Amino acid sequence: MTAAPKKVVLAYSGGLDTSIILKWLQAEYGCEVITFTADLGQGEELEPARAKAELLGIKPENIHIEDVREEFVRDYVFPMFRANAVYEGLYLLGTSIARPLIAKRLVELAHQHGADAVAHGATGKGNDQVRFELSAYALDPSIKVIAPWRLWDLTSRTKLIEFAEANQIPIAKDKRGEAPFSVDANLLHTSSEGKALENPAEEAPDYVYARTVSPEDAPDTPEYIEITFEKGDAVAINGQAMSPATLLTALNDHGRKHGIGRLDFVENRFVGMKSRGIYETPGGTILLEAHRGIEQITLDSGSGHLKDSLMPRYAELIYNGFWFSPEREMLQALIDKSQDYVSGTVRLKLYKGSANTVGRWSDMSLYSEAHVTFEDDAGAYDQKDAAGFIRLNALRLKLIGNRNARVK
Amino acid sequence: MTAAPKKVVLAYSGGLDTSIILKWLQAEYGCEVITFTADLGQGEELEPARAKAELLGIKPENIHIEDVREEFVRDYVFPMFRANAVYEGLYLLGTSIARPLIAKRLVELAHQHGADAVAHGATGKGNDQVRFELSAYALDPSIKVIAPWRLWDLTSRTKLIEFAEANQIPIAKDKRGEAPFSVDANLLHTSSEGKALENPAEEAPDYVYARTVSPEDAPDTPEYIEITFEKGDAVAINGQAMSPATLLTALNDHGRKHGIGRLDFVENRFVGMKSRGIYETPGGTILLEAHRGIEQITLDSGSGHLKDSLMPRYAELIYNGFWFSPEREMLQALIDKSQDYVSGTVRLKLYKGSANTVGRWSDMSLYSEAHVTFEDDAGAYDQKDAAGFIRLNALRLKLIGNRNARVK
Amino acid sequence: MTAAPKKVVLAYSGGLDTSIILKWLQAEYGCEVITFTADLGQGEELEPARAKAELLGIKPENIHIEDVREEFVRDYVFPMFRANAVYEGLYLLGTSIARPLIAKRLVELAHQHGADAVAHGATGKGNDQVRFELSAYALDPSIKVIAPWRLWDLTSRTKLIEFAEANQIPIAKDKRGEAPFSVDANLLHTSSEGKALENPAEEAPDYVYARTVSPEDAPDTPEYIEITFEKGDAVAINGQAMSPATLLTALNDHGRKHGIGRLDFVENRFVGMKSRGIYETPGGTILLEAHRGIEQITLDSGSGHLKDSLMPRYAELIYNGFWFSPEREMLQALIDKSQDYVSGTVRLKLYKGSANTVGRWSDMSLYSEAHVTFEDDAGAYDQKDAAGFIRLNALRLKLIGNRNARVK
Amino acid sequence: MTAAPKKVVLAYSGGLDTSIILKWLQAEYGCEVITFTADLGQGEELEPARAKAELLGIKPENIHIEDVREEFVRDYVFPMFRANAVYEGLYLLGTSIARPLIAKRLVELAHQHGADAVAHGATGKGNDQVRFELSAYALDPSIKVIAPWRLWDLTSRTKLIEFAEANQIPIAKDKRGEAPFSVDANLLHTSSEGKALENPAEEAPDYVYARTVSPEDAPDTPEYIEITFEKGDAVAINGQAMSPATLLTALNDHGRKHGIGRLDFVENRFVGMKSRGIYETPGGTILLEAHRGIEQITLDSGSGHLKDSLMPRYAELIYNGFWFSPEREMLQALIDKSQDYVSGTVRLKLYKGSANTVGRWSDMSLYSEAHVTFEDDAGAYDQKDAAGFIRLNALRLKLIGNRNARVK
């Protein structure tokens, strides 16, 4: 960073850490600070952030509190779910997918306010710093990004508290000590990691889970729901049409009730180390299962296998922070192209931690009972065709077999 | 098929259908028939197959009944699980992986007996014909493969029964009518498909499930087990070393009890149509979860992501019947190379249909609490490195951003 | 084929073989025949095909002769070149890419004439039958496709000539004997294979080459040309704007003159065998080199590497006949997305068999001399960033190194 | 770098730049310096480096000059060529593949001498720093790597010369000024980049080329050579067995004479910028063509297509410096597995810049004239099999076609 920033848009949660950052920015650079607080469905009241920002000296016109839940689900979560994206086999990318949207709004607000920098509260060890900054730089190559955790000397809880006290930042009683673990939440998921969870050999204690009941405490009777898709996106539950965020909220309620979507996971961070996280993705877990269910009857093998083979790469791009990259957009174009006929309804059974497809139907179905039937198929399929099919598929293998026998 | 076969090795289950095939081969070709009946863990008594074969005129020295369970798990199931292979996102390939072993033994017995052909009872619509035949041709390019279902005119249940009666083939009472669905079983899984299951919109009735209790009927209390791996293969449960087949059998018991491994699935067959199957893979589902769990701490991202990206192709090869192909062997070499350090123990919670990793530890772990800790890391990681890391990863995106802004 | 076709659209070249097919269709099925003769740039007069079709009894309104060169290059060749598609490392897919267009016109004419079938003259051993038929079935699942070479008993040259004579089909003198090899040509390439070329150990004789001078006979002085691209497609040569087919024709002239684009190749056919072909793709070879040249400065690594990694799959789809498949269209969407900024000009040196990029420039260039310069870069790039970049990329490798040292 | 290094092994060329580094290390850290000078086939006398090192105060026992050409070709170049590796479609990775070997020897010498650090002369903008350092860290996670170009303030030619003069470092007359471009050379290639070559629009002047005659100056008569392979590696030229380095040297002579292997290229560096290089890879270009030629008849499509699809990833790993990574080793295991039967001989025509396969033969050939022949194949292939093959491949497309027609 050559020159000090003059005006900074800060991703501000209203919590202690970002309040400290707010003050530190003012103190360090003497710069004007604009705050951006987004309702991504994290389940917290945001208006207190306004009062707090004002208390910390931010001008009212520099305080932005926005409900971005619909944009979040429609333009980020849903496109990602079209790909059935999971990172390293299991993680539904709940944190990863929220960062580009926040970065985009930070940059847009910077342009609106004539600010030359944006700032975030992610640490120097994690993935979020990468996601924020790659997104910001992609959207505005000349923007400055300030990551106080990599810059300041407030390297212990004690120093942070001292700084807060010295700067008249209110400290909630339960924030004086160290939190037993760190939490991130949005409409798609809640993640918990660090400290009490750092030993991957030990089962996470039940109090870590915030978004789901324990499967043991879930209802003893299964519940069935039906999710309807249009072109790869969920549009209705049990026949009732809903907006994207409304639908995901409703799925979260279903998932919470039935203890669905808990994941104890050790993952590879982009910055090179492994970390252990506890994830809860109640609605997303149901949605992924349902999307796979509707693709089962509406996608052919050529489309499905191509998507499947590229999914890990797509998921890795999102995890690593490359949402706003040309290669993610190229993959998105491929994936979206596959979803033209992914419409129909899936019936799922929710029960004590599981969401399982038990039925699916669609006007767009490629399933042909006429072909597959064990009964008389009325000539739909000539079994003798299989002989030629197999013999030509085998020809290469026979030539290899002959060669290998010849030369051994 | 130009000339009639003289001596045929038949994959013989002892059931009505393969007994009809046995007689049909004798009648159609006047050939000598050798029977091969394998114990793959399907859970049926095999000795009755001997008596039945004798009754149908097979010479005792031409009757082969073998327990291949250890070979099956050691040389087929375990190598496949090293890859975390699932077909189309969900299917654990339980039928697919058994066919190459059967084909291999058929060909070996053909060589031993000087037979010129092998025969199987798979129909002309399914994948199994492909798997049997590609395997047989790969192992012996000059072998003949006879698939009576593609050849004969016994195209209805009535005709089959008539043929059986005309040929003194005993018919169990419950085999006179049509079975409500078709079943395949081995130590890894049981699959059910066809007829009563042909409508993918309708939930499969509970009586279809043969290998697992319903999650609703599973114990109300979770059970914890620990699975130990060496170089990617499971070797012990709860500290007790077991042979491959013994271990999988024990996992099946755990899975059955807790209702784990049920799957209602619509898949794309290699021959071009979709079919719906109900799969039960109790032990395999636990094993897959555990293998992922141990890889989480023992595999780095480079290895893991490469494996992940190739898994769909590897699974497709197995599904399509290309086990004995050079490309499957190439992928196996890659996967096996990745497993050198995949050793350690995973702790799982089994509960009402779910098997979830809740802890994992290993002498070979790459997880470094020293690096990831939220606490002071004593210099293990310099957070300032992240700034350079991000800036160089962003450089390309900035150049793109500048270009796009310039030309738009 | 259950029922005989009533009306057939035949891909008719006017040559002896397809004339025999024409008559055979009439004789075998008593059906009406519509002929389709396309000018794909193969360099033959097509009007004689009209006279010949009339002579063989085809009604004038059933004779279609069309110049499809612009459509061929614009909608098939150019999209393929956006992908830099080569099959098995070297083959530019000149035959493969023409078949879908012919099949499409056959099906469209069938619809126009109310025909229930289409017919082609490809043999049962090659790829072209697959390409024709997969395309036709994809475009009209109910169409019948007749492949006389797989059906009739005219299995020797003698029998063909006898049939021709018996049916008053004129036979050019040079067609009585066997051709020394088989040729296919269109605006993109000429392929030669079979008979005299069947021994892959022997160099192809020079008389096989029809579209290019020998490099030894090419001018002793290099020629420089400049090709301009817009969004991935060539639009001008030496500053002169041209339509797609005009441009490819002009490049062919350049390539012919300089002996560019000869390939002696052994490839794997989709039907399982290897074959040896001699290909001449003069203009296409120049175009591929130029397209790579312009991508070098206009595509970033993320886009380019993603394209590169999918190219073999895309090329295989085209080679195997899956142009009209959803997966080809998905890949095309991805590739086309990458070409938005692939505009600019490439300078090439043509000399005795080689076409080499020697310069390239573009308003859309991502090349930044400011960054790469060995001179003072005025702060565009901070070399110290590289330290952090490397250290975080190395972190994983260090953790592996430590682990491996610990456990060995 | 926390503490100053005590003993450093320096990759020392004997040239001015690394001599300055040598002195700077002594001055900056007061450390003992060990020099390592490798003969990688760069074509320079290395003994002068010994005298120069001694002159600069290095103890004789701390000076290492080694001929590593055989190891280089056998363990690095040849394994890479088994993959047909090219970066971004065209670059044969000549610089990339040499760096891991140098880094490995630096680390080994560090262990031998009890040194705690290694040092290299690569700048902070390029790929080589990454390759050196990732290799070193992978082989010894605790080693320090010193990259003076990222550390010192000798940021202009003038300062470097002043430092040299102040430290009694002899300066050859032609080194006082700036070189017009930067050169790297080894047995596989020579690369030139920077300064005079920084404008990618301008053709590189002929004097840049050091390893090949201009195609225009190459012989007017083609030369034919035959290269014999065993398990994927070249072992003989024209029937004469040679060691790896001897063989590559001989191929370089052939390539030089015929002007083969020149490449004008703009590539994407790992550090995020584009750069333009002029590469000459005379022997390697011939070797790549020949290896592809022998694979054409000895590799089946399954193996070949799998290799092809992974090649870009493999090449990118080498380019980016991940030779000593588990994923490169996994890919190598896959590739090596494919080469078991890649033995035989390729005949090439060398002429004015081109090396083209014109014949290939092998005892291991999979090419079957019996199958492919246009003549009577004596029943090797039943053309009717193709009908079933096509119909089952088309089934999916037909189902899609029906669906799309139904719903549109």
Automatic annotation (TrEMBL), chains A, B, C, D:
Subcellular location(s): the record lists:
Cytoplasm
Protein known as: Argininosuccinate synthase
Species for this entry:
Paracoccus contaminans
Binding-site list for L-citrulline: 91, 96, 127, 131, 182, 191, 267, 279
Regarding protein family, the annotation reads:
Belongs to the argininosuccinate synthase family. Type 1 subfamily.
Do you know which HAMAP family this protein is assigned to?
Answer: Arg_succ_synth_type1
Q: Name one GO biological process term.
A: L-arginine biosynthetic process
Matching Gene3D superfamilies: Argininosuccinate synthetase, chain A, domain 2, HUPs, Single helix bin
The record's GO CC annotations read: cytoplasm
The pathway that the record names for this protein is: Amino-acid biosynthesis; L-arginine biosynthesis; L-arginine from L-ornithine and carbamoyl phosphate: step 2/3
**Major localisation:** cytoplasm
**Which reactions is this enzyme annotated as catalysing?**
L-citrulline + L-aspartate + ATP = 2-(N(omega)-L-arginino)succinate + AMP + diphosphate + H(+)
> What's the encoding gene here?
argG
Q: Which residues form the Arginosuccinate synthase C-terminal domain?
A: 181-399
Annotated signal sequence is none
Residues bound to L-aspartate: 123, 127-128
Q: Which GO terms describe its molecular function?
A: argininosuccinate synthase activity; ATP binding
Sorted keywords for this record are: Amino-acid biosynthesis, Arginine biosynthesis, ATP-binding, Cytoplasm, Ligase, Nucleotide-binding
Where do the Arginosuccinate synthase-like N-terminal domain residues begin and end? 7-170
Which parts of the sequence bind ATP? 11-19, 38, 121
Superkingdom of origin? Bacteria
Per UniProt, subunit arrangement is: Homotetramer.
